[in-house]
Amino acid sequence: GRLTDVPVKREYKIHKKIPFTSDRARMSVLITDPDDGQYKLYIKGADSKIKALLDPKQKDPEAMQKLEQFLNKASSQGLRTLLMACRVLDYEEFDKIQSDLREAEADVVNAKERVAEISEEYEKGVVLLGATCVEDKLQENVCETLEDFRRANIKVWMLTGDKLETAKNIGFSCKLLTKEMFIFQAQGAEEAKEVFTEQRVKDNQDLMKQGKPRAIVF
Length: 218
Hints:
Blueprint: E1 13-18, E2 26-32, E3 39-45, H1 47-53, H2 61-76, E4 80-89, H3 91-105, H4 111-123, E5 127-134, H5 142-151, H6 164-173, E6 182-185, H7 188-210, E7 214-217
Parallel strand pairs: 6-7
Antiparallel strand pairs: 1-2, 2-3, 3-4, 4-5
Helix pairs in contact: 2-6, 3-4
GO molecular function, one term: nucleotide binding
Pfam family, one: Cation_ATPase
Keywords: Coiled coil
């Protein structure tokens, strides 16, 4: 439907929540839609994870292009992005997913792994609903603390599950990265390996002569 300025209140019955984990990088809820009575699985999470679960038949090329433009723009501004998607379930699927999840959750040894496997099976084939972005502001004294580390000659690594552009932007905002640095950039294990070997060896002498600090982003 059309977006309006008039607030609309809806009450949804949530039958099951599939929690967020760092491995899954997403969460889902199983609900009954109050408008049409349909059973639906709503999911939100990291764009790379959700895009891999989208129904290929429902992917509109123009919409996907606009999505990529939005994600790239948001990431370049250091914003965290999320995708939202949905899948309509018939009663048999609705009943079975609840049964399968209850059985998996009762496994005292491998509950987490089994829930993840079952969830992925039912989360496939979702239809994209939209994307959002949010600013995750730095905590107080982050920049000052990192500067103290540098003065003490303590090497600092930033580990994050964010997209590369988002991570770089956050690196600059907390002054872990600076414009004076020569930044090596790589994506994936193979490129990172090259950065640590061939490229680093090749450029090391010139960089040392220039006296520039270095940073590796991958």
